[in-house]
C-alpha cells in the first residue's frame, strides 16, 4: 500500500511539472503589432529592436523572458533574447526593447539573395516566458524593393553614426 501511495504521489508530481509549460486555453497569445530597428552596430554584430506587442487578454500578462529567431527568406539571420520582469497590460499595446545578436554571414547571404531576387520575406518566431507557461509569439511579412533599400540605407546610417 505504501509503494502504491508513493508511486501515485510521484506520478502526480511529474504531471505538475509537465503541465507547467502548457498554456491554458483561456490565454490568447500576444500579437506582434510592429517591429522597429532601434540600433545596429556592425563591429559587435548587435542590434536592438523595439517590438510592439498587443495583449488581447482581459488580464495582465507578466513576462519574464522573450527569445527567438529572426528569419529572412527562411534563413535564420539573428537570435534575440530579452530578460527582465515586465507586464503586458490587459488589452494594451506595449513596446519591448529586445537585444539581438546578428549572424553576419547568414545576413550577408540572405541579403545577397534579396538583392538578386527582390523578394524579402521576413519572419519573427519566438516565445515569451510567463507564469502561465511558454507563449508563442510570431510575426511575418514581405518587404517591397523600396522598403529593402530604405532598410539597408537605415542600417548603414545607424552603423556609421555609432
From TrEMBL:
Residues 30-144 form the Water stress and hypersensitive response domain. One of its GO terms (biological process) is response to desiccation. InterPro entries: LEA_2, WHy-dom. This is Water stress and hypersensitive response domain-containing protein. It comes from marine sediment metagenome. The lineage of its organism: unclassified sequences, metagenomes, ecological metagenomes.
